[in-house]
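Per-record layout

source: Parabacteroides distasonis
name: Phage tail protein
length: 68
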Amino acid sequence: MEYRTKDGDVVDDICYRQYGRSGYALQVYELNPGLAEYGPRLPAGLIIQLPEISKPETPELPKISLFD
């Protein structure tokens, strides 16, 4: 998946917006050699590759009622 950066984007924030958590930054840097050279805040207009990560299934929780 491709992502075009906006001025001031941070890899952790991009991961959080795309995947719901920021723990995938290392995979983003591995897919994009040289990305770290821009520093923590990325300039606008870079096209970076994001890893294909499937979201884990959320288990269905039992329903509880306050009034039986």
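summary: Strands lie at 2-4, 47-49. The chain has a mean pLDDT of 89.
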